[in-house]
């Protein structure tokens, strides 16, 4: 059960998502009446939304609370890089490369990429930007033997485009697992948010046109700036879903507390 403050935040965010950047939500008095809340409670929620970059306040007779940015929508139905879906939604996409290296993969990466104990991966860590504001933190690994010279390429754009143009690889499908997590202090600093803020962790294995895994990545998207969208088909009662369809799995409380 959400708290009154959380419920108020959700209602305001829903109105932000339904509006357009630059549109006026209203004055504090108008909003307090609209949401049937006190102005002190409203100010607390608006302060958090303003810090997150979703709204901004204009002082004066024609002032009020205005929409700054709508949430970025990420489709779960397509294998597409972050710059592509940002541009398609009208944002100016940007990237800050944090680190690059060739390293030995851990066991999880070995299994995901089907590598042996003596293989190496190219590891790239980047911050993705939407209109100059951090939207996600990504850590991607690629089999080093399959992509010689990858670190010599321009890594501030789409790596998928590099893989296709330079190496002849086409991403055919991806397996993704989505979890809600809280930002660590380091992650929060890189994303410009408070520690323990909500994040969406998307763990992805991407396959090429031959069915070979070519990427293993862990992307952290800001929960306040991201919404997920997926297109599904109804097949009727009693008809089994085909392999590869979406599913939802609930973690046990013990798994959540020990993870």
Automatic annotation (TrEMBL):
Output the Gene3D superfamilies linked to this UniProt entry. Answer: Chorismate lyase-like, Winged helix-like DNA-binding domain superfamily/Winged helix DNA-binding domain
Fetch the SUPFAM superfamilies from UniProt. Answer: Chorismate lyase-like, Winged helix' DNA-binding domain
The UniProt record lists the HTH gntR-type domain at 1-70
User: Which InterPro entries does this one have?
Assistant: Bact_HTH_transcr_reg, Chorismate_lyase_/UTRA_dom_sf, Tscrpt_reg_HTH_GntR, UTRA, WH-like_DNA-bd_sf, WH_DNA-bd_sf
Keyword list, A-Z: DNA-binding, Transcription, Transcription regulation
State the name under which the record lists this protein. GntR family transcriptional regulator
Q: Which organism is it from?
A: Mycolicibacterium komossense
């Amino acid at each position: 059960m959400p708290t009154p403050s959380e419920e108020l935040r959700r209602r305001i965010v829903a109105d932000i998502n339904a509006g357009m950047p630059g549109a006026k939500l209203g004055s504090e008095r108008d909003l307090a009446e609209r949401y049937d809340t006190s102005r002190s409670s409203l100010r607390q929620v608006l302060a958090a939304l303003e810090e997150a970059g979703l709204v901004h306040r204009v002082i004066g007779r024609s002032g009020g609370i205005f929409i700054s940015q709508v949430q970025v929508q990420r489709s779960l139905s397509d294998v597409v890089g972050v710059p592509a879906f940002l541009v398609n939604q009208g944002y100016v996409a940007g990237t800050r490369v944090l680190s690059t290296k060739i390293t030995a993969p851990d066991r999880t990466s070995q299994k995901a990429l089907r590598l042996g104990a003596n293989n190496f991966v190219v590891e790239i860590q980047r911050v993705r930007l939407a209109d100059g504001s951090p939207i996600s933190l990504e850590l991607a690994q690629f089999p080093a033997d399959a992509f010689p010279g990858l670190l010599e390429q321009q890594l501030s754009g789409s790596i998928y485009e590099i893989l296709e143009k330079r190496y002849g690889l086409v991403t055919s499908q991806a397996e993704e697992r989505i979890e809600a997590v809280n930002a660590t202090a380091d992650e929060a600093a890189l994303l410009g948010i408070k520690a323990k803020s909500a994040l969406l962790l998307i763990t992805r294995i991407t396959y090429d046109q031959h069915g070979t895994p070519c990427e293993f990545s862990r992307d952290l998207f800001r929960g306040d700036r991201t919404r997920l969208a997926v297109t599904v088909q109804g097949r009727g009662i009693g008809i089994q879903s085909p392999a590869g369809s979406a599913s939802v799995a609930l973690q046990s409380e013990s798994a959540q507390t020990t993870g």
